[in-house]
Design brief:
Layout: E1 16-22, E2 29-37, H1 44-50, H2 58-67, E3 71-78, E4 84-90, E5 95-101
Antiparallel strand pairs: 1-4, 2-3, 2-5
């Protein structure tokens, strides 16, 4: 591991398949909002490394603050027979919040 290669200890990590079945839901449709933080979305560290891993000017720091937000996915799903299957594939070291609005 080095100062800019922080993922070296995690190179053997694999993607994680997550599956969740929700039952007895009252709705026929729902809105699913997913907020994703990983090395591609929301990581100020990874963006800084892409910028050259150099000392930051105030403008550079402000830029990193602006882009360091989760990626948001939004979709509508049918809820047949009150059952909703949620499936996600998480990248190594990813955090994902899934919000379901009935």
């Amino acid at each position: 591991m080095s100062f800019t290669k922080r993922y070296a200890p995690f190179l053997k990590l694999a993607k994680l398949n997550v599956s969740l079945m929700l039952t007895d839901l009252p709705a026929k449709k729902c809105v699913i909002r997913e907020r994703v933080l990983n090395w591609k979305h929301g990581s100020a560290f990874d963006a800084w490394v892409e910028m050259g891993a150099r000392p930051l000017s105030p403008d550079d720091a402000a830029y990193l603050k602006r882009i360091s937000v989760p990626k948001i996915y939004l979709r509508e799903e049918d809820v047949p027979d009150g059952v909703l299957d949620i499936n996600a594939v998480l990248e190594p070291l990813e955090v994902r919040l899934i919000e379901i609005t009935l």
